[in-house]
């Protein structure tokens, strides 16, 4: 069983920055790919960024150059550094460990990010 606990959300002005953290419990964190998704009101959940066990990264076009995903395997934590935030980044952000290697998939409870002046 894996638990994912997000933190770091909040209210920020346009152009500001936030860093989200996702702390994972359970074994095998270091071999798992991890991802950050977001869901704005009335919209489907979308993948924002992902990182492989080897720290290769992938980003949605809408956040390229502004967001950075990283991981610290010693702390079983994945991060999302968000810079130059825009009002359209407002959403609930979810940490995800997709199913792989016969391991189950898991979601965190989500953390609210609001970008507004």
Could you explain the architecture of this structure?
The structure is a single chain. This protein is an all-beta fold. Helices cover about 0% and strands about 45% of the residues. It has no helices and 11 strands. It has strands at about 5, 10, 20-25, 35-40, 45-50, 55-60, 65-70, 75-80, 90-95, 105, 110-115. The strands form 2 sheets. Strands 2, 4, 5, 6, 9, 10 and 11 form a 7-stranded mixed sheet that branches. Strands 1-3-8-7 form a 4-stranded antiparallel sheet, with no helix packed on it. The radius of gyration is 14 Å and the shape is globular. The mean pLDDT is about 95.
Cα separation of the termini: 40 Å
Helix content: under 10%
Number of separate strands: 11
Calculate the mean pLDDT score and round it: 96
What's the main sheet like? 7 strands, mixed
Low-confidence segments, given as residue ranges, are: none
As a percent range, the share of strand residues is: over 45%
Radius of gyration, taken over Cα atoms and rounded to an integer in Å = 14 Å
Oligomerization status of the protein chains? single chain
Order of helices and strands: EEEEEEEEEEE
Instruction: Give the CA-based shape.
Output: globular
Structural class: mainly beta
Q: Tally the helices: what do you get?
A: 0
